Amino acid sequence: MVVLMIKEKLAKIKSGKLTARENLENFLKLIKENNKINAFIYVNKDAVTQAEIVDKKIKQGKAGRLAGLAIAVKSNINVVDMPITCASKTLENYYGAFDSDVIKKIKQEDGIIIGMANMDEFASGISGESSYFGPTINPVCSERVPGGSSSGSAAAVAAGMCDIALGSDTGGSIRNPASNCGIVGVKPSYGRVSRYGLIDLSMSFDQIGPLCKDVFGCALMLEIISGKSDYDSISYDRPVEKYSDFKKINKIKIGLSPDFEKLCKDKRIYNLIKNYAEKLAEKTNSKIKKINLEYVDLAVQTYYPIIYVEFFSGTRKLDGRKYGRKIEDSCGEEVLRRIIGGKEISKAEYHGTYYRKALRVKDMIKKDFENAFKDVDIIISPVTPSLPHKLGDKINPEEAYAFDAFTIPANLAGICSGVVRAGKIDGVPVGLQIFAPAFREKLLFDVMKACEDLNI
Amino acid sequence: MISEEKITKQVKAIMDNFIRALDKAEGVKEEFGSERKDSMRTKIKKDKDPSFRKRMFRNAPKKRDDFLVMEKKTW
After folding, report:
1. By CA distance, what is A231's nearest residue in B?
2. What are the start-end ranges of the E strands in B1-75?
3. Can you give the pLDDT at residue A351?
4. What span, in angstroms and rounded, lies between the C-alpha atoms of A450 and A209?
5. Does domain A6-225 have CATH number 3.90.1300.10?
6. Nearest to A382, CA basis, from A349, A346, A420
7. Contact A347/B at CB under 8 A
8. Residue pLDDT, tens place only, A56-107
9. CA–CA separation, A269 and A259 (whole Å)
């Protein structure tokens, strides 16, 4: 099968050279043939019928901007009448009773939901191995984990089983699997995309974002799902620019931090990223500037006390009365660890020792980035400090948490961040991460496009 | 079988390690307050989907007629 870039495919569908039905059928065949990848928990049985309806709209010239594209959705985003399991036994039999804001927008633009993607149970993982429905396999490097928690979304894109996927990112859950699977992924600024309908992991950090093989696909999807919603009080009322209308980057200031070098366990990754940044600077007549991020090495230690507490709070509704099973009776080890951790930290006797201290440092990390962005336009960093571990390898919780050391800062600071392919080390894909200030997604995409055009 | 006791001990050890690391930021001034100008929720006109209740009710594990069934003292 010839892999088309999203812009080319949309043109082909619009011109009638490829029908929406054919597009969906190609993907469904591939999903069936490659079920070992385990990218999907549920495949939409009505996808072909829905594609036929879109084909009619295309003929009438009334189709939307995503007409005929197949969209995979992470299993923690509500889609009406589809199983929203969070890859858990707890919600094994829960079906979406409504469409999330993002899903409504995708449907309005005639995107077709192809299925619900696998993930780490309740988005609590970094490897894609903790799903109740079995681990996701990395399609481009099968002996290594695909990353998580949006493992199925990334694997589905990398394996060519959909055009674009939606994931959610609380501390790196879009960017980590995008890097491990060699694709593009974006975490929008906090408040850019409505979280209405997202089953929360941590309400202060969660954001829904796109994953795709190319930057255009991510930009187009984010253009569509962004914006203020009356149903999400933290969504911001800011204009949504045309992210997919790329502007050529010229003479920008690129920030590189020695603090990131210290955090990088595998120095080959840092060297790859540094070389990439130098090539980008040369190609765009830009300058690289050293920046200081004093508290960034505390990101992991700051993040976990906060998400333990928020996850504990968010899961109190899962008591087995309205839906599913009681979470403590049916969850896996990492989910239970977070619940117990949250319960402990929330106790009055600990108040201030963990949670308030973590909130204070969160504020400092945010200020670190605000100060850095006074001197540079964007910041470049690795995505993970080491290569993804081998599938099935046992790693302890603190080692697992450390995999998000480079991605968590963007969530703590509320800024936007994207991942593009940087190359391979030992045959394993390695991504490059770009941070841009909050609500500067247009700049982020322009830089990501410039990276893509380097053809590394 | 997951041992709750073992996890509790493990979590406490993790948090103690983390909090020791955060001591680096000791002396950082605590700042509270909202950054948002419009922190009040605005009243919205909700779309009433008549099928929502039916769909939501379908997800309940135990129900009788129009009610959820719950055993006392189990939650």
Report:
1. B44
2. 63-64, 67-68
3. 66
4. 20
5. yes
6. A420
7. no
8. 999 999 999 999 999 999 999 999 999 999 999 999 999 999 999 999 999 9
9. 14
Contact A398 B42 (CB under 8 A): no
Q: What are A138-170's pLDDT values in tens digits?
A: 999 999 999 999 999 999 999 999 999 999 999
Cβ burial B57-74 (10 Å sphere, 16+ → b, else e): eebbbeeeeeeeeeeeee
Q: Which residues of A touch B59 (CB under 8 A)?
A: 93-95, 97, 322-324
Name residue, tokens 């109190």.
A316
Is pTM beyond 0.90? Reply is: yes
Phi-psi region of A415 (alpha: psi -120 to 50; beta: other; left: phi over 0): beta
Indicate yes or no: CB of B28 within 8 angstroms of CB of A333: no
Domain ranges of chain A: 6-225
Is A326 part of the contact surface with chain B (CB cutoff 8 Å)? yes
Residues of chain A with pLDDT under 50: none
| Residue A88 φ/ψ, nearest 5 degrees | -125, 160
Task: Compute CA A223 distance to the chain's CA centroid, rounded to the nearest angstrom.
Answer: 15
Per-residue pLDDT of chain B (75 residues), as tens digits, is: 778 899 999 999 999 999 889 987 776 665 555 566 666 666 777 777 888 888 888 898 888 888 888 776 655
Tokens 């985003």, residue located: A77
Question: Residue A229 is which amino acid?
Answer: S
A363 reaches B (C-beta below 8 A): yes
Task: Specify which residues A387 forms β-bridges with.
Answer: none
